[in-house]
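User: Here's a chain of 469 residues. Predict its fold as tokens.
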Amino acid sequence: MKNLTVIIRNLPLKQKLLYSFMVASITSLALACLIFILNDYLTGRTLLLNEGNALADTLGSTSTAALAFEDKKTAHEILQALKAHPHIDMAALYQKDGTDIAVYVREGTTGRPSHVDSIKNRFFDQKNIHISRPVSLDSEYIGRIYLRYDLSGLASRQMRFIYLVLFVLVLVSCFTYLIASFLMKFISKPLKNLVDVAHAVSLNRDYSIRAECFSPDEIGVLADSVNDMLVQIQARDIQLVQQQEQLEVQVANRTHELKTANEHLTVEIAERKLAELALDESNRRLEALSITDALTGIANRRRFDEVLLQEHARHARSGGELSLVMLDIDHFKEFNDCYGHVNGDECLRQIGQVIASSVTRIADLAARYGGEEFICILPETDSEGAVAIAEKIRRDILALVIPHKGSKVAGYVTASFGVITVKCSADGSAAYVVAQVDELLYRAKFHGRNRVVSIDSSKAVDTAVETSG
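Assistant: Prediction complete.
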């Protein structure tokens, strides 16, 4: 039953309507035919029963004389008259004591009538109607008459009638199907049109499609309502499209404006970056100029002071040894007086290059301290290493063999050196270290120039060491 419900539910609407109409029509017709057949059957039985009762009464009144005089011949003749009644297949006349005086059995019928005592006035079985009537003479019971009606003729008539009804049902079903198919178009066609419109709108999003109105009935009202809804949706869709197009135009214009502004901004940023780079380069050059001696190309006094403070503080924290080398060109005033300031500047440049080539570590610093004085910062360098560097510079200056007629030391340019190695402390002063190395330079000049005088203040006892070549 559940599967049948599912099948019916999944049928197309047209078939549902068609089958519903046919089932209702055929069921009503079949029910009417069934009632008609049942009524015909009952009416036929009633007619037979009434006919039998009347016939039994007639035969009973006719056979009173035969029963009264026990005239079997007359009784037999009376029953033989039943041959004119094809529905009666068996009959009998019984005397008062229940013995039969005459019996009638239609040809082709088997059996004999039942005993009169066992027969009621009337009763039915599956194939026959049994009728038993008393026979009286002057109100005195003298016997009984028995008739049996064969119902096979009635059954055959009923079967023919049933076949006729089935034929009519089939014929009516065909006509019903044809008529219903024709009439269903007035219902299914508008509904199918609505379904097709809804499917097309759902599939293509085309709200310009309209449902066709076939009639002014409920389906027509539904079609008009669907069309009104589609009109509203289409108007709203057109409005949305217009708004979207306007928005796209606004976005495109705004995007163009932003793109233009971005291009201008990019150019401006690029120009500013170039300006910043140029400014940074200028600042670096200015910074380099501010910390570089213009004549010799090495660090100037300002740079020296900055680095010395940094290294002094760092060595105070680390506890490492810091060395300074200060040198002065011997009798440089006389050199300028003898050779002129241009040659004097060239001499300073060559000596600056010698010092720069000898101080090669990243942390080392060679600087022009002032005039003809130079100074070197040697971080993490002990006294022996500092003296070695000073000696190298002294020998390289001698190797230049720059003529110096005004020198009282030699016939070429020489230099005097002061070297100090210290252990820095937080309460110490970088200026004091410079003053010490300047004192050692003074000693080197005092003791004949062209020499290196050093002291290792990092040890418990300061010991001055003098080297010369």
